[in-house]
Each structure stands twice: as C-alpha cells, then as structure tokens.
Design a protein that fits this description.
386 residues, TIM Barrel, eight-stranded parallel β-barrel, two-stranded antiparallel ribbon, 16 strands, globular
Length: 386
C-alpha cells in the first residue's frame, strides 16, 4: 500500500475534502424528511455540528444560543473566559491588534492564571439558561478542571490537545491516566485529537463517549506548517471510522467520531459525514456569526503558546446570525450559511435517511470537482470562486 517517494521509502496517498466528491445513489428523498441528528452518550441532538472550543467562537452567550438551536458549543476552560472576570475588553484588544502584533498580544494576555471560580461561574451561567454546558481543557488540566466542571453542572467534558494518546510519556509533569480519569467522571468525556486507526482504538478502549478527528486542518491552525504533522481529513475520518466499527463489532459499544476542523462550507461538512463522521466540529464558520465573541476574528487554540505558537489570528468577518449560519435562510451563495439545510439537502439527493446511511455514500476521487465549469465564478470572484 502506498507509493515510492524514494529508495526504500513508501508513503500512502491521502485525501482532503477538495479532492473528493459524493455520488448520488438510486433513490432520492425529500430533504425535509431526513434525520440529520447525532447521538452522544445516549442523548440525541438535532444539530450534528459542534462549535469548537476556541475563544473567538464560544462564550457563555454563544453556548446558550447554540443550545437553543439544537446544537452544542464547547467552552474553552484554558482561555480568556476563565482568566478574566470581564473578557469583553480582552477580546476587543485582540480584535483591534494589527496582524504583526496579534500573536505577541495573545501570548501576553494568556499569561494571566486561570481562576477556578470562573470555571464554576461560566458553567453555572450556561446552566441557568437551561442550555447544554460542554467544556474543554488540555490533558494536564483534566483531573483538576474535570472535578470542578462536573460539580458546577457541566453536561460534557472534552480533553483536547494537538495530538492525544493513551501512552503519553513525561518526566516533567504528571501524566493523566485517561482510562482512570474517565471512570471517575459522571458525565460524558470526549477525547481528541487523533488521525489514525490504532490510536483511535486505544482511545475508545478508555471508555470515551466520542473521539475528535483532525490534526492541524483548522483555518486558524498552523500545526501543519510549524510541525509538519497531519493527515488530510477525508482519510483521517475514514481510518478512525474503521476503528469505530471494529470497536463496536468487538465490544458492542458504538463510539461516535467527530471530524474536527478543515470544513468551511456545507459541502465540506457533507463530505465529512460521507467519510464516516457521526458529527462535525467547526470553528471559523461560527466565528463569522454576530454572536461570536471574536468580533470577526478567529484564532487557534495553540496561538497563545509561550514558546512555539501553532495557531494564528485570522480575519473571518461577520456575515450573519448563528441561526442563519446553522439553519438559514442563507443570504450568501458560497455554502457558508444554512449548514444544516445543506446537509439535509445533500442527504436527500444521496438517498440517505440518516447519518448512518450518509456514511455509506459512494465517494470518488475528483480533484476537479471545485473547478470544473467554474471559470466565470473564479474570474468574477463570486460563488465558488471567492
């Protein structure tokens, strides 16, 4: 398997969203009659799209609105929301910074220690509105913050890092035992991020309620440039989906996988589901909403790293409300709005009643799928040529 890249060295060909297309089947369904819902730890959610735990995307108000619309927004416990009593001023500073100043400013602002009382406060603010409270932290903080979040009433806890494994080695700090940690938690725990079959199997064996798939594909992430690490999302999702199916066959427990990052349009989201995803997590698409705290800007989770930033701040603009971006009606022609509507329409055209049916869609390798016949759109910078 793979192609020769040099003497005695083979490499596997992998694929991203721009290189594939979905093939309609023999049946079509009224898009209004398909079921795009997702299920995590036995609970159903109408919207299978999670908002990423990024400070330019999710704050308390955003989480409440996302929950009202039937989805989940994950709050970053390592960010400005838990470092500052009033994060609004901090977010304004980040938005006003020049591109040359942005990374240095973000690094300095994230030096302020995390206040545990603010973790409790933010979660309780979300729960007060009867909304789903999902929160995220890095593995080093999981045990400490997990207990606090659980006591505050969180519904879901995400342990997330650039690359996660069950066999992390360090003499410098205590390594969290993921299996032991998950067993101690009374709420669902999601683990991420991974891109391979073998690591996904090991993560599923910990008792995780879901697995995040993706390393470095996000709009604000620079991991692939800084570290050279990553697997394109179509291949990564397909490989982890195979692990999910094997785990289910062997253990009888279905662990959903969530493709995280690399999707900026409805078409990309549809391709993620066809590749095997049970849900998707996006950042930049939601950073464009009026409710997003980034005020038209979006930055990576590793942008604040003091020694080696692996993210940047990008300008995404503000294009509409969260409801318009998620459920429509779309006012733009580029697939960045009414993401759920796009998914349901695609499912109908593919003959998929639900997400599990969508995962059986025929996929073809089609590098010209975005350019074929689109010369005028590209020349005029409209539609798919933006």
């Amino acid at each position: 398997m793979g192609m020769w890249v040099g003497r005695g060295r083979k490499a596997r060909r992998c694929y991203g969203f721009d290189e594939i297309a979905l093939v309609p089947g023999n049946v079509t369904i009224n898009p209004n009659e398909v079921d795009p819902s997702m299920e995590i730890d036995g609970k159903k959610y109408r919207v299978p799209i999670l908002a990423a735990a990024m400070d330019g995307v999710v704050d308390v108000k955003f989480a409440i609105e996302a929950s009202r619309l039937g989805g989940i927004a994950v709050l970053n416990l390592d960010g400005v929301q838990t470092r500052y009593e009033d994060p609004e001023e901090i977010l304004k500073k980040i938005a006003k910074a020049s591109p040359q100043e942005a990374t240095k400013l973000v690094q300095s602002l994230y030096l302020k220690p995390i206040k545990e009382k603010l973790i409790t406060k933010r979660i309780k603010e979300i729960k007060k509105a009867k909304a789903t409270a999902a929160v995220s932290t890095i593995p080093q903080n999981a045990e400490r913050f997990g207990e606090i979040a659980q006591d505050a009433g969180a519904d879901m806890f995400v342990v997330q890092s650039t690359v996660i494994s069950t066999r992390h080695i360090s003499k410098e700090y205590k390594v969290v035992d993921l299996k032991k940690f998950i067993k101690s938690m009374k709420i669902p725990v999601i683990l991420g991020n991974c891109v391979t079959y073998s690591v996904a199997l090991e993560l599923m064996a910990t008792g995780a309620s879901a697995i995040l798939v993706g390393i470095g594909p996000g709009a604000a992430c620079t991991t692939r440039g800084v570290l050279g690490i990553g697997v394109p999302q179509v291949t990564a999702t397909s490989d982890v989906a195979a692990a999910r199916d094997f785990h289910y066959k062997k253990k009888g427990k279905y662990i959903p996988i969530i493709t995280d990052g690399g999707m900026d349009s409805g078409g990309d989201i549809c391709k993620a589901f066809a590749s095997g995803a049970d849900a998707v997590m996006v950042g930049s698409a939601f950073a464009r909403s009026k409710e997003a705290p980034g005020k038209g800007y979006h930055w990576g989770m590793a942008t604040p790293h003091a020694n080696l930033p692996r993210g940047t701040r990008v300008h995404v603009g503000t294009t509409g409300t969260l409801e318009e971006i998620l459920l429509g009606p779309a006012k733009l022609d580029d697939g960045s709005q009414n993401l759920v509507g796009a998914l349901m329409t695609s499912m109908g055209n593919l003959g998929a009643n639900n997400i599990k049916d969508m995962q059986l869609t025929e996929i073809i390798i089609a590098p010209s799928i975005k350019t074929e016949g689109k010369l005028m759109q590209r020349a005029q910078r409209i539609g798919m040529g933006k």
